[in-house]
Write a structure and sequence with these properties.
single chain, alpha+beta, OB fold (Dihydrolipoamide Acetyltransferase, E2P), elongated
């Protein structure tokens, strides 16, 4: 097989995205024609795509020695570090590339992104701004079309810098709106652009416009949890509570996540459907017992219906969890707790009566002294033999009564566990 046939086979393999196999074929070409520039460049590209980064770097460094004034080679070296999220190293090589060609749009975008990942606000904004400015100055044609995606990404991530560091940007978070709008104009089918626009519009109080953006994002990429969640928040902001609840139920059909349950509970509380809200917040806590907001909102619901002792318990638990897992004070919960105790000082020392529940032991490890009870809740609840009635023998499939508590890690557990007559109970 001659060189041209080998090259043709390598290019065909490359088109099929068989990067490692294509790289082997390009190596074979170079073994027979060491000065074949096309084969060497293609070899570096295929090694890069195959994530053989060090080998790719060696090829591009060789090309840089042969053509020291070509900006593409230091860019490609930098890209190997960029793809591995080695941001500092990538910036060093991108800077070398830009010293050879200061108008290299793709390099400016990637350099800006690397600075963004390192939290270099000024440098990232400078690179993104120049990238966009150069692209807009280009005459219409193939070159401008080729770099359109880089300009769109530069606009999108420049907006992300603004959103993340609004205090350092003139105009604050609102300055992100024209940037995201530009990104959408260049890439109208990117659902994340519409989501980002909706998120900012919601934050600056334009809920109606935010809803339209979330709807478009959902049309382009249906049923993304984070999109539907923000859509629900926007609807709740406008007091369109039934629609908001429908959105949250739509998420819960497939993925009953704790934050979705909390947001649904907040909508139910806003509707003054306190019992439903209480049950929803309890489900959220079962999903993630360490999250302080679940207990906080449950406490507010108990406060709404005048269950002061229960409200105090949940608010205290919220404060405890925030301090334990996030090393911070929960000022909102503390304020509510202080308000209750100032008006109802008697509940400060009132013991909370736990409701007795029943279930069936689903698992029990006799040698370890613990197991799990299947009750009405979707999740099985943990129990330890030390929390069982003395002399009661615990084993799989027996009926028990118990009270639900929280362990030192903030997780639900069963206490005061005792055997009961199975004939008096139905399957939960």
């Amino acid at each position: 097989m001659n060189i041209q046939q080998l090259l043709s086979q390598a290019e065909q393999t490359e088109k099929q995205r068989q990067w490692a196999q294509a790289a082997d074929l390009y190596r074979t070409v170079l073994e027979n024609s060491s000065n074949n520039q096309t084969a060497k460049e293609k070899l570096g590209w295929c090694l890069s795509r195959a994530k053989e980064y060090e080998q790719a770097i060696a090829v591009f460094q060789d090309l840089a020695k042969i053509q020291p004034q070509v900006a593409k080679w230091p860019y490609m070296i930098g890209y190997q570090y960029y793809d591995r999220q080695q941001w500092r190293e990538s910036i060093e090589w991108f800077s070398k590339s830009l010293s050879l060609n200061s108008e290299y749009i793709a390099v400016l975008y990637r350099k800006g992104y690397a600075h963004f990942k390192l939290g270099h606000v000024g440098e990232s904004l400078k690179a993104f701004e120049r990238c966009r400015s150069l692209w807009h100055a280009l005459s219409e044609g193939m070159l401008k079309e080729k770099d359109k995606k880089n300009c769109a990404k530069a606009a999108y991530y420049q907006a992300q810098v603004v959103i993340k560091y609004p205090r350092e940007i003139q105009g604050g978070v609102e300055a992100a709106v024209p940037l995201i709008t530009e990104a959408i104009k260049l890439e109208p089918n990117n659902h994340n652009g519409h989501y980002a626009l909706g998120k900012v519009l919601l934050e600056i109080g334009q809920a109606e416009k935010a809803i339209a953006a979330f709807q478009e994002s959902d049309r382009l990429s249906p049923n993304q949890d984070y999109v539907l969640d923000r859509w629900g928040r926007a609807l709740a902001k406008l007091n369109r509570l039934e629609e908001a609840e429908e959105i949250y139920q739509r998420i819960l059909l497939k993925r009953p996540k704790d934050y979705v349950l909390r947001n649904l509970g907040k909508v139910q509380r806003q509707r003054k459907d306190y019992q439903c809200a209480i049950e929803t917040f309890k489900k959220a806590i079962q999903k993630n017992s360490r999250n302080h907001f679940g207990h906080y909102y449950l406490g507010l619901c108990y406060q709404d219906i005048g269950e002061w002792a229960l409200a105090v318990r949940e608010l205290r638990e919220a404060i405890h969890l925030k301090e334990k897992y996030y090393k911070g004070s929960f000022t909102e919960a503390q304020k509510e707790l202080n308000e209750i105790l100032s008006r109802h000082p008697e509940v400060a020392t009132t013991p909370i009566v736990h409701t007795t529940q029943r279930g069936k032991i689903a698992k029990y490890f006799d040698d370890k002294g613990y197991g799990f009870i299947k009750g009405k809740s979707p999740k099985q609840i943990f129990f330890h033999i030390s929390d069982c009635r003395r002399h009661d023998k615990m084993e799989i499939n027996i009926w028990v009564e118990y009270e639900e508590s929280i362990d030192d890690e903030g997780r639900p557990k069963a206490i005061k566990v005792r055997r009961v007559d199975s004939d008096k109970h139905k399957t939960p």
